[in-house]
Amino acid sequence: MSWTNERVELLKKLWSEGLSASQIAGELGGVTRNAVIGKVHRLGLSGRAKTSSSAGKPRRPRTAAPAAGGAPKKPASQPQSVGATALKTDIAPDPVVELKPRVEPVPEMVVPISERASILTLTERTCKWPIGDPATDDFYFCGRQSDPNVPYCTYHCKIAYQPVADRRRDRKTVARAS
């Protein structure tokens, strides 16, 4: 529905009487509360008349009730809160916990030269654990016997694979520390 001159005048009248945007939208019909608010802002109708129900009641200052001994209690000092910080609590952030991975000591394994494998000598049953820097001449693969359906020997499987329970426990520890 469009804003005719009559509807705009009625909007101004209802706004000056102190009706809410929802009430004005209901009176006008065919417009939403947000449309009323938008039109009010475009017209520059910022000042509103106070409703008589809220303007007529002066507030009384709060006083503390007298204690059982008869002397009035002092009000407890409370921090003043202003604006958007009214509900903000002053909570110190949890300290950041540095988690160090738990590494079980694995004895160093020396692969004899006769068992070392190159990329050309690897098979389905040889350990494919890389040892050294691939850019150097002394790079090789472990080459020891591996179990079926596993690419590494028993020694390198212990390094490569973590039990599921350990991974879950470590993940929970990291989550709690965050």
Features:
178 residues; mainly alpha; 6 helices; 2 strands; elongated
Q: From the alpha-carbon coordinates, what is the Rg to the nearest angstrom?
A: 39 Å
Give the percentage of residues in beta strands. Answer: under 5%
**Helical amount:** 25-40%
Q: What are the low-pLDDT stretches, counting only 5+ consecutive residues below 50? A: none
Mean pLDDT: 75
- How many strands, what sense, and barrel or not for the largest sheet? 2 strands, antiparallel
Could you describe the 3D structure shown?
This protein has 178 residues and is mostly helical. The protein folds into two domains: 5-51; 99-178, no CATH class. 31% of the residues lie in helices and 2% in strands. The protein has helices spanning 5-16, 21-28, 33-43, 52-55, 154-160, 164-177; strands spanning 130-131, 140-141. The chain has a two-stranded antiparallel ribbon with strand order 1-2. A hairpin with an 8-residue loop joins strand 1 (130-131) and strand 2 (140-141). The longest helix has 14 residues, at 164-177.
